[in-house]
Model the fold of this input.
Amino acid sequence: MDTLFGVPVAALIGQVLIGLINGSFYSLMSLGLAIIFGLLHVVNFAHGVQYMLGALVAWVLLDTWGINYWWALLIAPVVVGLSGLAIERFFLRHLYHLDHVYALLLTVGMGILIEGLVKFKFGIGGQPYPNPMSGGVDLSVTFVPWYRLWVIGVALVVSLGTWYFIDRTKLGAYLRAANENPNLVRTFGVNVPRMLMLTYAFAVALAGFSGVMAAPIYQVSPYMGSNLIIVVFAVVVIGGMGSILGSILTGFGLGVIEGLTKVFYPEGASVVIFVVMILMLAVRPSGLFGRQP
Done:
């Protein structure tokens, strides 16, 4: 069968693959946002810039010191995570007792400032990053590069591993309890401010990790984060604000929906996620996996 629903099978498989790749980044990025919002009650608008910083650090490591992708995959998330640790320690921590809008405005300002500094230093043009994995697998109807499969597989492992850690381990229980009743958690000898600081740094490091994986697929550009973050926020809203599992499943699912829309109705591919978000807000404002008020 060369066609399905009047569409070439090769085109369908290709768009599902592209959807899964985009969904990998939607999932990882929305996962970090869900962790920050669910545990710290902060809407982190700097998340897109932190994703861009991961890709930029990987490019600088390669261009300046010749450090390859595999080392960058370890180093860049640590660098970005340390920057997040500093942001939480010196800025966000002083706003937790205030209305959430103050932290939101802080992260908006941080994102604009960091993006501006990157444009000043490196310019606005995109920089290519070499593919670290050559070859692929021939499925007879389409050719799938190994690196694309690597991205999908790693995104699944990291996303589900993070969900398991937060929802199924003792330390994850402490994190959730610190969100609900920090005074009670302190009685167990837990340093709650340090735990929250490390939580923010970990979520930011996830964004940096995503940026490194995105570098060989998309150009490394100051705008790569701002182009993605609005879509990721829509994914978070659909999955349910603060829902970690919701972010993972919705990220991959919406990536596939977006990919298939490019086959059946190309004109609507750029807005289909936002249409789903509007319908979700009208029918179930808490999202697919969010808690009902």
Observations:
- The longest strand covers residues 136-138.
